[in-house]
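Run log // design_07
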């Protein structure tokens, strides 16, 4: 029974995630995986909260969460022989001041879309005690924040960040920091300028949860898994012009110019990044709800340590960046 609206007073969510999967790990922009692992994963989580203040303008919620987790790995195709189960629990506080804007041409083309620009914060503490399966007593924490605002002529911007980690008597056991910002400006009707940048850091990531850039997310002129690691940054800028909202009453069409730069690498390795620029088409169904735009991009890729310079044609959908900070 989750929160259905900002005005709801009580909410309860449950999660059960069971996996027996293969995890491929990539390094240094090489297309073939560096190694392959079998993962046995089980996560059960319950989270409940009460809003001590709630209304259409926002809320303040106090809650508790508890989880049981198993996460074991073995070299593929060997079956996992270990069975380590851990438990954690703790309180959280979540606050939101509502701010929603209606725009078009951002995540979709030819349709109005809602953008959540609410100012949001969540602080969470989690006990990870030794008697629940951990190597030693630990305390986990999470802090997440977003600051959003509307700009003139229908533009908008936000800054967001997420910090989490687990501290034990031996120091910081694991953690991550992700910071990002997005600005959208509408200089005139049918024109849209988008700028985005983010940076991230992870300490001791689980196998397969590293940053992974290329093709769909990250520099679009580079292949999938072109940049992987526990350090990352990415910047992109795009200028769009919507040419027609309804061609044959079914299709919206736009053109765009863009430039991307960013990469990812592992601690101790040489910093790896890539740059591309180009032109493209933006297509979107004008009468289908919740449909991402299709990108047809002709990108010039600048040479790096793995890829040659040259023109590439990229077909993808959606944005080249996440609109939420990465959760780990």
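design_07 sequence
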């Amino acid at each position: 029974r989750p929160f259905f609206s900002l005005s709801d007073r009580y909410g309860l969510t449950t999660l059960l995630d069971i996996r027996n999967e293969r995890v491929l790990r990539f390094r240094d922009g090489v297309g073939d995986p560096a190694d392959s692992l079998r993962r046995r994963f089980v996560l059960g989580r319950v989270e409940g909260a009460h809003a001590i203040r709630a209304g259409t303008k926002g809320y303040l919620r106090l809650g508790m969460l508890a989880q049981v987790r198993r996460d074991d790995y073995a070299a593929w195709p060997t079956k996992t022989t270990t069975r380590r189960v851990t438990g954690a629990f703790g309180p959280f506080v979540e606050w939101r001041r509502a701010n929603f804007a209606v725009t078009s041409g951002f995540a979709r083309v030819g349709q109005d879309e809602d953008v959540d620009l609410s100012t949001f914060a969540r602080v969470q503490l989690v006990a990870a005690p030794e008697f629940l399966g951990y190597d030693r007593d630990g305390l986990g924490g999470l802090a997440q924040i977003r600051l959003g605002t509307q700009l003139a002529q229908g533009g908008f911007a936000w800054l967001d960040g997420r910090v989490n980690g687990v501290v034990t008597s031996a120091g910081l056991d694991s953690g991550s920091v992700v910071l990002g910002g997005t600005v959208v400006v509408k200089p005139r009707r049918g024109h849209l300028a988008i700028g985005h940048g983010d940076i991230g850091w992870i300490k001791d990531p689980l196998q397969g949860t590293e940053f992974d850039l290329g093709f769909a997310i990250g520099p679009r002129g580079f292949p999938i898994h072109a940049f992987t690691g526990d350090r990352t940054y990415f910047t992109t800028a795009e200028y769009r012009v919507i040419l027609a909202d309804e061609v044959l009453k079914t299709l919206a069409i736009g053109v765009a110019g863009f430039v991307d730069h960013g990469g990812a690498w592992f601690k101790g390795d040489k910093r790896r990044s890539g740059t591309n620029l180009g032109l493209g088409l933006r297509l979107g169904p004008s009468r289908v709800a919740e449909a991402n735009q299709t990108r047809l991009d002709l990108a010039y890729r600048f040479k790096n340590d793995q890829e040659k310079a040259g023109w590439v044609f990229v077909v993808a959908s959606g944005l080249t960046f996440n609109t939420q900070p990465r959760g780990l």
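The chain has a mean pLDDT of 92.
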